[in-house]
Amino acid sequence: MMSRTVAAAALLFATLAFAQDAGTAAAPAPTGPVEPPPSAELIKKFLDYQENGKDRGPALLDLIPCVKVDSTKGSPTQYQCIEPVGESVPKGTTVFAWLQWLCPKDGKYEDVSIQFLHEGQVRKTVDNPVVGFGRTRGWRGENFNKVGKWTIKVMRGDKELGSSVVSVVAP
Q1: How far apart are the C-alpha atoms of 149 and 168, rounded to whole Å?
Q2: Nearest 5°: CA angle at 40, between 35 and 43?
Q3: For residue 20, what are the CA distances in angstroms to 11, 14, 108?
Q4: Residues facing 112 on adjacent strands
Q5: DSSP-derived 3-state class of residue 130
Q6: Where are the alpha helices (DSSP H) in 22-158?
Q7: For the chain, which terminus, N or C, has the lower number of CB atoms within 10 Å?
Q8: What are phi and psi of 55, to 5 degrees?
């Protein structure tokens, strides 16, 4: 009698286990270490900046020299740099300064610009106003028509926010 009760309980438990499993697959186990969320202190600093940082200005998150930006409407990589500059580019290549910003609430910054320099000499300056809330992306391009070292600088007024160097070689 005892063995029938145990067998019946086992069968019932197995049936319930299958019923709970129906329709959803188990999530795969993480393959590597799982990074914990940021600390509460860091999150609070971010939220304070997001809500009250208008006078502090935008935060430049990324400056990526890029030869191709995805502008295909509806693409999963729309507005992303999909082909960053490698070790060098050939003379005559249009290189984009792809920028990613964090802009606080009510932020509007008309004093942001991008400079393209060849061997330390400014060749072009382009206004790049930053407006929005949260993550904002944009890009500006320049034809790198001279061999040598080109520098892309992001400026806010007279303060440099970031820079990147691109080597241009003969084709």
Answers
A1: 6
A2: 85
A3: 14, 10, 52
A4: 156
A5: strand
A6: 40-52
A7: N
A8: -80, -10
Q: Nearest Cα to 97, choosing from 119, 81, 73, 120?
A: 81
Task: Please list, in sequence order, all residues whose beta carbon lies within 8 angstroms of the beta carbon of residue 149, skipping any fewer than 6 positions away.
Answer: 118, 119, 165, 166, 167, 168
66-79 burial, b for 16+ CB within 10 Å, e for fewer? bbebeeeeeeeeeb
pLDDT in tens, 111-134: 999 999 999 999 999 999 999 899
Q: Which of 158, 157, 137 is nearest to 66 (CA)?
A: 137
The pair of three-digit structure tokens given for residue 153, joined into one six-digit string: 């600088």
Which residues, in sequence order, are CB contacts of 89 under 8 Å at separation 6+?
67, 95, 144, 166, 167, 168, 169
Provide the whole-model pTM.
Answer: 0.77
Q: Is 66 helix (H, G, I), strand (E, B) or coil?
A: strand
3-state secondary structure of 106: strand
**How many Å apart are CA 19 and CA 40, to the nearest integer?**
40
DSSP code of residue 80:
S
Query: SS3 helix, strand, coil % of the chain, rounded to 5?
Result: 20, 50, 30
